[in-house]
Specification:
Blueprint (H helix, E strand, L loop, with lengths): L2 H13 L7 H7 L6 E8 L3 E2 L10 H16 L8 E5 L6 H11 L7 E5 L5 H14 L5 E9 L13 H4 L2 H6 L3 H11 L4 H21 L9 E6 L6 E6 L11 H5 L22 E11 H7 L5 E3 L15 H13 L8 E4 L4 H11 L12 H4 L6 H16 L4 E4 L8
Parallel strand pairs: 3-4, 3-5, 10-11
Antiparallel strand pairs: 1-8, 1-9, 2-8, 5-8, 6-7
Length: 413
């Protein structure tokens, strides 16, 4: 009899005569050799773009130390890693650089490397890509990475499309800046500036409490790098060990004093205090099949169950999580009350307010360590970073199930 069957029988015995086995109970009790499991989850600190410790660090300067750490901390023979998938948005030569970075980090030429992009969810797409290959038997072991240097690879906006494309209002909306979509959400769904500042202040306060308590310490890899000191003009070696964007003492009242960042787009409620910060950082997730992990003596931090995607109207792209999360929960037979932690990317406060209220979520379960408003959103990194953070939080609180979601440029979730 398998361990999962024994566990199911134990649960059945415990619940006999009282209530039937719930979908959550069954999900948690089931263990299969072919499960996709996570054996290591790690990230760099998140540093302020253009002025933080990583402002002079190229993308490879984030990738190489992170991949080195995955190899060293897991004590896994790099020859066994069949593929590394890197999510990145802005680097123009990402496919070349990620392959080179993996080799520089000690992975052999036999380790295949690919680069994926789905804007803000590129890190999630990397995890999904590796997990699905393991689930279908294509590979046994892979590493998913999300990484972005917004300092050295700035976002230049949408390309120029043919006039025939731009005549289509949906395509025209795809080309618009993301803050424009945030203001559309605020206007269309009556998300007030006051509510946005309230949610943003809550993010800062959670992040402050988390950082002071040392909760993120086990998810963060300290990184040593070099930067040009803006005061002295000299190049210095610095070590970064914590997220730079957290502003202690932030309140709704203090945020309310910040002027609108985009007065040209009514209702002009988005500010530098209630939107995600421009940030540099990277995150990595080591995945493998359960029986392989057990054979290699790898710790199992969690199990990848399922992912899904959904498209929405680009002009209100922030509603994405409110569409994608119910779709995912329906597919796995769970309700929102079965979920212990929701990691929802805080692209803008207007979308966060809408999604949390539309889904009827307990705010205490949403981004319990704060989110991108408080410590930043390195575009390609955040999806993988959310998984790293969620696993650390589940471990700390001895909880079991987390869901990650985000709205994505061009309106996907």
């Amino acid at each position: 009899m398998s361990a999962s069957t024994q566990r199911l029988q134990q649960l059945s015995g415990q619940l006999a005569g009282s209530e039937s086995l719930s979908a959550r109970d069954i999900l948690l009790a089931t263990r299969k050799p072919t499960d996709v499991v996570i054996c290591l989850a790690l990230r760099t600190p998140l540093a302020k773009a253009h002025k933080g410790a990583f402002k002079d660090t190229q993308l490879d300067g984030l990738l190489v130390p992170l991949l080195n750490a995955v190899r060293d901390k897991s004590k896994l023979d790099p020859q066994l890693v069949e593929e590394i998938v890197v999510g990145n948005v802005l680097h123009k030569d990402a496919t070349f650089l990620t392959r080179a970075s993996c080799v520089a980090a000690g992975y052999p030429a036999s380790t295949a490397v690919s680069t994926v992009s789905r804007w803000c969810s590129s890190g999630l797409l990397a995890v999904e890509s590796v997990a699905n290959k393991i689930a279908t038997g294509g590979i046994d072991i892979g590493i998913a990475v999300g990484a972005e240097s917004m300092s050295t690879n700035p976002d230049n906006g949408a390309p120029e499309f043919p006039a025939s494309f731009m005549a289509d209002p949906v395509i025209n909306d795809i080309t618009q800046p993301m803050p424009w979509t945030a203001e559309n959400m605020a206007r269309d769904f009556n998300v007030t500036r006051e509510l946005q500042d309230e949610f943003a202040a809550e993010s800062f306060q959670k992040a402050e409490a988390s950082q002071k308590a040392g909760w993120p310490d086990d998810e963060i890899l300290p990184v040593t790098t070099r930067w040009k000191n803006p005061k002295t003009g000299e190049v210095e070696t610095v070590q970064v060990s914590r997220d730079e964007g957290v502003r202690y003492g932030t309140t709704k009242e203090s945020l309310s004093k910040i002027r609108s960042a985009f007065p040209q787009w009514p209702p002009a409620t988005t500010t530098g205090g209630n939107a995600s910060q421009l940030t540099d950082g990277a995150a990595a997730v080591l995945l493998m099949r359960r029986d392989v992990a057990e054979k290699l003596g790898q710790p199992i931090l969690g199990r990848f169950v399922l992912s899904t995607v959904a498209g929405v109207d680009p002009r209100i792209m922030g509603i994405g999580p409110a569409v994608a999360i119910p779709k995912l929960l329906k597919k796995v037979g769970l309700s929102k009350d079965d979920i212990d932690v929701f990691e929802i990317n805080e692209a803008f406060a207007s979308m966060l307010v809408y999604c949390v209220e539309q889904l009827g979520l307990d705010r205490a379960r949403v981004n319990p360590r704060g989110g991108a408003i408080a410590f930043g959103h390195p575009l390609g990194c955040t999806g993988a970073r959310q998984i790293v953070t969620a696993l650390s939080e589940l471990k700390r609180t001895q909880q079991r199930i987390a869901v990650t979601s985000m709205c994505v440029g061009t309106a996907i979730a």
